[in-house]
Specification:
The chain is α/β, with parallel strands linked by helices. It is built from seven helices and 15 strands. Helix 2 links the parallel strand 5 and strand 6. Bound molecules: S-adenosylmethionine.
Length: 297
């Protein structure tokens, strides 16, 4: 580790560090909270060495939302460990790689997270170049943090390639800006199923000037609406349900908070879908079934 220029400012100088290589070999402790006054400049060191794990965000569904870095990582992979809902066209970027499907379904995990962590470590330790392909972004409700921690604990080199998270991809497709001058200057992402709703503290996350995006909230939409109304949110708050964002058959369903549960059921909305709650949910395209205009000929 080499010491770089110290920052100046009204507070005491903050030393900056440039990490020497290999960043991958960082000990477990480096994943623990860092001292608050140090800055680490991280390089993307996808060096050509044997035995490593690269967590890759595959984006919300449409294969052409993969990043170039994701494609390069897939091309270099010898093993791809992937979730469900990954388009075959994405896997095709790694034609020679061995594929391992660890698809998860709500309440029925094909492979428990601990077993996935162990699998990644085992394959990389055997010298494989492992791509762990995950929907959206690995660090947004993707358990990517746990997989990184497992690799670091085992001294397995690990890197993360970000992906377009579902909220960003689906909102863009629907022309629904999650922030908008004078309408919403705050946006929050919450998980509708991570814990019992009563244990979740969403106070202050929704309301005037704010947008709340709920991942994994479809099956519990009525309970989520009740919780927000009980927390003081107006029953008239606009809601948009973005179903199958960027995938064939993508839909946008609009309603008011008081009717959210009923409308989700009546429209037979299925996962994957997001709930967008706030004034911005009134914006965007008027057509219910969304079509890809970017690549249309
Ligand atoms: C386990 S979370 C994974 C989120 C992912 N890591 C991301 O950044 O988008 C799965 C949830 O993401 C949302 N989701 C994923 N893909 C989606 C899509 N194409 N359209 C709408 N929501 C989607 C749904 O709420 C789904 O239940």
């Amino acid at each position: 580790m080499t010491e770089g220029a110290a920052r100046s400012g009204p507070l005491r100088p903050i030393p900056t560090f440039t990490l020497g290589k290999p960043a991958f070999a960082a000990p477990k402790e480096s994943f623990l909270p860092l001292p608050h006054c140090t800055t680490h400049v991280l390089g993307m060191e996808l060096v050509a060495r044997k035995g490593r794990v690269v967590l890759v965000g595959a984006g919300p569904g449409a294969p052409d939302l993969l990043t170039l870095r994701a494609v390069r990582a897939l091309e270099a992979a010898t093993v791809v460990v992937h979730d469900g809902l990954i388009d075959p066209a994405v896997l095709d970027f790694a034609p020679a790689a061995r594929r391992i499907d660890v698809a998860k379904r709500r309440a029925r995990h094909t492979l428990p997270q601990d077993a996935i962590n162990a699998l990644l470590v085992r394959e990389a330790s055997a010298g494989e170049t492992v791509v762990r392909l995950k929907g959206g972004d690995p660090f947004v409700f993707g358990r990517g943090g746990e997989e990184v921690a497992a690799c670091l604990s085992a001294n397995v080199p690990v890197a993360v390639v970000p992906g377009v998270s579902a909220a960003l991809g689906a909102a863009a497709e629907a022309l629904l800006p999650l922030t908008y001058r004078d309408l919403a200057s705050t946006v929050s992402f919450v998980a509708g199923t991570c814990q019992a709703l009563s244990e979740q503290n969403w106070a202050g996350l929704a309301g005037v000037g704010r947008t709340l995006v709920v991942y994994m909230g479809v099956t519990n939409a009525a309970g989520i609406a009740d919780k927000l109304i009980a927390d003081g949110l107006s029953p008239d708050t606009a809601c948009a349900v973005l179903e199958r964002g960027t995938l064939p058959g993508a839909r946008i369903v609009r309603t008011l908070l008081a009717d959210l549960g009923r409308v989700v059921a009546a429209e037979a909305v299925v996962s994957p879908a997001l709930l967008v709650i706030g004034t911005v949910a009134e914006l965007g395209r008027g057509d219910a079934v969304l079509k890809d205009l970017v690549c249309a000929s």
